[in-house]
Amino acid sequence: MNYVKENLWQIEEVGFDSRYLGKTESIMALGNGYLGSRSATEEHYTTERRDTFVAGTFNKFAENEVSELPNIPDMWWMDFIINGEIFSLEKGITSNFSKRLNLKNGELIREFDWEFATIKLHFTFRRFVSKARRHYLSSFVTVENLTDIPISIQIRSGIDGQVTNSGSQHFHEGEKGLVNGKYIQMMPQTNESEIDFVFTIGHRLNAKNVSERIEMGRRQIFMNYFFDLPSNNSATIEKRMSVYTSIDNDISDHEISEIRETAISEMEALEVFSFEELLQESAEKWSEIWEKHPIEIETENFKDQLAIHFAKYHLHIMTPAHNEHMNIGAKGLSGEGYKGHTFWDTEIFMLPYFNFTHPEIAKSLVTYRYLGLDGAHKKARNNGYEGAQYPWEAANPTDGEVTPVWGAADIVTGQSTKIWSGFIEQHITSDVTFGVKQYIDVTGDQEFTEQKAYEILFDTAKFWGSRLEYNTEKDYYEIKDVIGPDEYKEHVNNNAYTNYTAHWNVTYALNLAKELKEHDPETFERLNQKLELDNVLADLARKVDKIFLPQPTDEGIIPQDDSYLSKKTIDLTKYKSKDGVDGLFHDYNLEQVNEMQITKQADVLLLLYLFEGLFPREMKLKNFEYYEPKTTHDSSLSLSTHAILSADLGKLDESYEFFEKACNIDMGEYMKSSDDGIHAGSLGGIWQMIVFGYGGVRMIDGKLRIEPHLPKAWNKLTYGFDYHGESITVVVMKEGFELTKEDNGNDVVFFSNGEAYTLKNKLSIL
Amino acid sequence: MNYVKENLWQIEEVGFDSRYLGKTESIMALGNGYLGSRSATEEHYTTERRDTFVAGTFNKFAENEVSELPNIPDMWWMDFIINGEIFSLEKGITSNFSKRLNLKNGELIREFDWEFATIKLHFTFRRFVSKARRHYLSSFVTVENLTDIPISIQIRSGIDGQVTNSGSQHFHEGEKGLVNGKYIQMMPQTNESEIDFVFTIGHRLNAKNVSERIEMGRRQIFMNYFFDLPSNNSATIEKRMSVYTSIDNDISDHEISEIRETAISEMEALEVFSFEELLQESAEKWSEIWEKHPIEIETENFKDQLAIHFAKYHLHIMTPAHNEHMNIGAKGLSGEGYKGHTFWDTEIFMLPYFNFTHPEIAKSLVTYRYLGLDGAHKKARNNGYEGAQYPWEAANPTDGEVTPVWGAADIVTGQSTKIWSGFIEQHITSDVTFGVKQYIDVTGDQEFTEQKAYEILFDTAKFWGSRLEYNTEKDYYEIKDVIGPDEYKEHVNNNAYTNYTAHWNVTYALNLAKELKEHDPETFERLNQKLELDNVLADLARKVDKIFLPQPTDEGIIPQDDSYLSKKTIDLTKYKSKDGVDGLFHDYNLEQVNEMQITKQADVLLLLYLFEGLFPREMKLKNFEYYEPKTTHDSSLSLSTHAILSADLGKLDESYEFFEKACNIDMGEYMKSSDDGIHAGSLGGIWQMIVFGYGGVRMIDGKLRIEPHLPKAWNKLTYGFDYHGESITVVVMKEGFELTKEDNGNDVVFFSNGEAYTLKNKLSIL
Questions:
Q1: What does the pLDDT look like over A186-243, one tens digit per residue?
Q2: How do the domains of chain A map onto residue ranges?
Q3: d(CA B221, CA B225)
Q4: Which of A198, A501, B480, B584 qualifies as a FRET site for A636, CA 20 to 30 Å off?
Q5: What pLDDT, on a 0 to 100 scale, did the predictor assign at position B582?
Q6: Residue B94 contacts A where some CB pair is shorter than 8 Å
Q7: CATH superfamily, with its number, for domain B10-288
Q8: String of DSSP letters for B465-517
Q9: Is A281 a catalytic residue?
Q10: Can you tell me the distance from the alpha carbon of A56 to that of A69, in angstroms, rounded to the nearest whole number?
Q11: Which ipTM value was assigned to this complex?
């Protein structure tokens, strides 16, 4: 990867290596939240993964599989047959190769010289997915003949519906054909969810004496263009594409014939615009994002600035902001990994960015959880519980649990391992509650609070009430047989993170009930009717003080679970230094790792960070020093938490090391880590490390706190956020910080190092 | 392609070109009738088509598709990662490349030197599909380090269930895992027909200090082997594979757990045998085929001899001789083309070979049609007819019609064209009857005749009786709106081939009824009960003499149909000389070709050949001279018919030209013609051209006729055949021919040039 100080909006790969296609396919993915596409090349390689997804179009390949985002037919495909030879960078000599993504406007450019036998051509590939029109995408290719002899060129370009999700085909083939003698259309339908798709393609060539021929195969339709490219001349082909589906919420008539019409009309209407103009239109939409609370870092290391551009770019292309029935996948829309499913990653890692900078998008994301109450009820019922138990993995909000049951092979037995998360990784329910609470605290969105948030907050507490198990011997309520955030440890009892967050969820509901009864009895009564709150609250009140909260040992260590501290320890240095994190599992299987004090990712530490108000600094420090060395960070969710917590603890050098590692999860030099898609949580983590970690922003018990502290390498940090409708900008210097707020709003009260401040327009704290 | 006089059992490709992988994948396909596999390379290329099929395992991907043979998970896959670089012949320098198939023992060998950076290796790949054990296949690879430095090698070998039929996935993923710490198993199931498959793989390495690692992905399971190959050393890997299914008729318990056991037991039992021994065992089975009626040609052109080896090899690997519920696909088991479906190709083109040389296999093929009566009834009923109307395309015998409804794009409109064959290409019914009649005439199989053939013969006649349409104006019965063998002409009335063969079918049934009533009234009565023959026959008797048989014009030309002769003609020279036959359709669409005197393939001429007893020589000659120039031979079924008919007509030079072209349909230099699979009918045609065309053998009206005539290039032809249980060898010289028959049988009566002969042991005719 090549990054340069001169362009803080560009990520670039120089030189081509077909072994590492997955890297740039993922980290240079394009999208607009409606659709996302890996940046697979126009020509084909055996090592490629050509995936494009439309958010929310979940489908189940078969009864015994879980629903996933189907990989839609590939429209980027263009074969170039040059003097009869299929162009591929694995043949001949490639020079001056650059593949680069402009994060500012979402344009992907790939260019190089290619020599093969007597051929020498310069290729330039440009493409974008429009941020201005969600259905539209486009590709523009220039081929230049660098020789003194004409070169014969055939371009085969169209749409390929033979692609699958690693072998699972989600589509019925559907109709396909030529429309108005000009546009190619293909109309497949998902086999189970019965969502219709309409793909439309038009081509524009700039070349002389072009002959053309249509070609149809099974699930494929192509145009072939034949021409001779004179010496020292160039030709261009523009491919204009659109995708519509029958669940689109921006069209009113979902009849397939109407959708086809809509797509054709749009194509026709756009004929008057050039590629450049349509790219420009999209770039303007991107500007709106970049103008909202830009982050500026004066740093010794320009990659820090690039990293936040990279993170925000991806956070926006992956987020289906247009539809509250959809949420963010753990790999965004950039790969088949995790099947497009939504995890706790949303609430804990990505939502904070939206809460603080795009509250309208955050609202859509939390509304998804409100719409998911039915699914959560279904899951609770299936497991013998009450209330709302959120699914570990979520697809359509009402689906309930969609975690697959079987995973990869166990190295010792060779058998597939059972994925227990869908059954027993139960902290997701309090994570969702936590996310909702943060949303309402940050935005002050009263309407959402009353209409939706309260219900979630009570209904999840109701679940926890039914989940608690009474231990007669110890006279307390405990939570046995779970997986905490540390997924190496399956079937543990009283995972600290789970128990503390469940306790918080219950306590919060009890307090809320008290407050509502007093100040808004009408709302309380409505919810009481719906959720039988009187009974639920009475039950919770009986139990809450007896919920077992794992207490610190004499050394001040909060036990991760009942058995963790009694397990043996090994030196993890060897595994922590390596690229990729599966080294450990070449030596041990999951069962063996289960029996050692090895932690995959922040677990107790995450608790200390998210609920920092509950724990004294000294305890945080001790636990950080105990657990970090035992943590492999074998989850992209781990490093950012450690970066923030160590920054909180004043360990700024250590924190900055975590920060840099965390930024490199996708952007770094390790070329295989992003194959299955980018790491959405980690990208949210980049923003959090900057704004929460170094910017010092936090919501604690409903109160805003700002305590910045810059790492050595940084001279100055500027960031901004929305808070209760107010737009605030913070400039952090080596010493002190300065806040400004637009003129016309309300005062903002916040805390800093124990002091309360009121921000009217401008405030300096030194 | 490279063929050498010194080895008449070898087809070879020298030099590698990834554009033409399809050619050798098809023509060097391996198989044993139970399974067939394209010879795709171990390593991957974007232009490959990796197909393996198990006969009869039809499945429907979706309700709106027709059933097809599913492409089963790929077991040949082996990646070689050499010094970290994925081996591919598109990289580096390849020399001494040879890919060759030994037709005699079914062994495929590929070898070459490969240089890349500091690497220089010699690779040898050998594989076979066992003819001795239908479930077993094996691969043996040798890698030799040709340099002075050690080379690091990783072999990734296993099974890939991500393959599809051009995007349609027929399998549920199923379980997979390691068994006994040694064998890989994968157990997918077809999604609609619910056939279980069990794939088992074992590896044997001969290399030093090998470390290994299992790897599982979605629908994939691999073993990885890592070792260093010392300078000037070699290593080998043997891959042992088996396939079982729950419809196998050689195992009794079809429980998946039992099948798994069976597969593992076989693998374990075979451990004592080497690759060579198992190949030898298979070769011995092949010997039995080669020893049965070998064809020897003394010719100026050694490729003639090679061609018949090639044809017989493929006829045997494609034919599911083990199961009468299965038949031969139009592409055998060598490609996705025609979905594994059975057409009239079986009866008219492949069955004759089996009738005359492997009557037990022929019996299985005609029994398939007997088992297909239910499907034929279903089709007749659906179309408003009675009796047995055979499907144009057949899968499982009871399925009835499985022709897809939509085909490739029309060049003018860009829309998919409707495939009418399943509806109106009705001559298939008399083709089946013709095949059955030939079978019983050649073999004298009395049991089949009584138990099955009579029923087919009557039931098809019953269909024709219901199909005939009365023309009041002309007072005759006609057959309107059909497609004859010439598929360019859709919706024609009174296609000569269709009307004549229907008339023959009806006439034959009437005669048979008369004979049975007289000599075997019991059988007649049984069939009468079953088929209501009294009514049917009365109806047929009323109609038979009024069936319209298109009569020759004054010029002696039998009109192909009512309108053909009035259509305009064009000069076809341009299209006939080209490789590939789609040139015509770049200039005209099917609708336009419909309006011209252009014929795809033998139509009237096929009639004159198959029912030669009905037409005088002079008429054949005139029609040959009229129709051949109008025929594009845009069907692999055309050339052999023309070769035989022209040989019959004494046009031996012309015939030999057709012969050579026909042999080259798959074996020739045109590298794209076999992409979708070999041309099964054309391969049967090769045998027919030799034995029927030049050997002069024919069954006419139930009588054996032998009238040989050699082309100029041939000095001598030796062939043999079975006839009514007798084994006959014929040696044809430039002048005259000699017949021998094994000692201990019955006399054989035959005709030759109007004379009747009786063959006891030996007979010379000069």
A1: 999 999 999 999 999 999 999 999 999 999 899 999 999 999 999 999 999 999 999 9
A2: 10-288
A3: 13
A4: A501
A5: 67
A6: no
A7: Glycoside hydrolase, family 65, N-terminal domain (2.70.98.40)
A8: HHH-EEETTTTEEE--SB--S-TT--SBSS-HHHHHHHHHHHHHHHHHHHHHH
A9: no
A10: 7
A11: 0.94
Which are the contacts of B530, defined by CB distance < 8 A and separation ≥ 6?
B455
Q: Return the bridge partners of B217, or none.
A: B220
Q: What is the pLDDT of residue A537?
A: 97
Q: How far apart (Å, rounded) are the C-alpha atoms in residues B86 and B78?
A: 11
Contact A416 B65 (CB under 8 A): no
Q: Per residue in B538-575, pLDDT tens?
A: 999 999 999 999 999 999 999 999 999 999 999 988 88
3-state helix, strand, coil in chain B (%, to 5): 35, 25, 40
**Cα–Cα dist A585/A631, whole Å:** 14
> Encoding tokens for residue B763?
């007979």
At residue A633's C-alpha, the angle toward residues A631 and A634, to 5°, is 115
CB–CB of B102/B109 below 8 Å?
yes
Euclidean distance between CA atoms A308 and A297, whole angstroms: 9
Residues in B 52-71 with any Cβ partner in A closer than 8 A: 61-62, 64-65
The CB density around residue A257, as the number of other CB atoms within 10 Å, is: 10
Helix runs in A566-725, H state only: 573-576, 584-587, 590-594, 604-610, 617-627, 638-648, 652-667, 680-688
Name the phi and psi angles at B448, rounded to 5: -60, -40
Phi, psi of B163 (to 5 degrees): -65, 155
Bridge partners (DSSP) of residue B699 are B704
Angstrom distance (rounded) from CA A520 to CA A526: 10
Q: Considering B336, B455, B487, B612, which one is annotated as catalytic?
A: B487
Helix (H) or strand (E) holding B371, with range, is helix B359-371
Q: How far is B365 from chain A (nearest CA, A)?
A: 30
Least confident of A329-333, B461-465, B739-743: B739-743
Q: How far apart are CA B276 and CA B267, in angstroms?
A: 16
- The full DSSP string for A712-736 is TTEEEEEEEEEETTEEEEEEEESS-
Q: Is B45 on the interface with A (CB under 8 A)?
A: yes
CA–CA separation, B534 vs B462, rounded Å?
Answer: 11
Which amino acid, one-letter code, is at B437? K
A213 near B CB under 8 A: yes
Picking from B123, B207, B203, the residue whose alpha carbon sits closest to that of residue B158 is: B203
In chain A, helix, strand, coil percent, each to 5? 35, 25, 40
- Would you call B169 and A166 a contact, using CB atoms and an 8 Å cutoff? no
Query: What would the two tokens of residue A517 be?
Result: 């009864």
Distance CA A371, CA A388 (A): 12
The length of chain A in residues reads 766
- Asked if B176 is an interface residue toward chain A (Cβ–Cβ < 8 A), one would say yes
Nearest residue on chain A to B183, judged by CA atoms? Answer: A414
Asked if A300 and A222 touch (Cβ cutoff 8 Å), the reply is no
For B79-86, what is the mean pLDDT? 97
Task: Name the residue facing A177 among B213, B215, B415 (closest C-beta).
Answer: B415
Q: Chain A 146-165, CB below 8 Å of chain B: which residues? A: 161-165
Count how many residues are written for chain B: 766
With CB atoms and an 8 Å threshold, state whether A408 touches B164: no
Place of tokens 């390495």: B205
Where do we find the tokens 């795009």? A358
Cβ-based neighbours of A262, under 8 Å, separated by 6 or more: A244, A251, A253
Residue A580 has pLDDT above 60, yes or no: no
CA distances B751 to A718, B213, B698, B735, Å, are 104, 69, 10, 17
Q: From the CA of B344, how many Å to the nearest CA of chain A?
A: 24
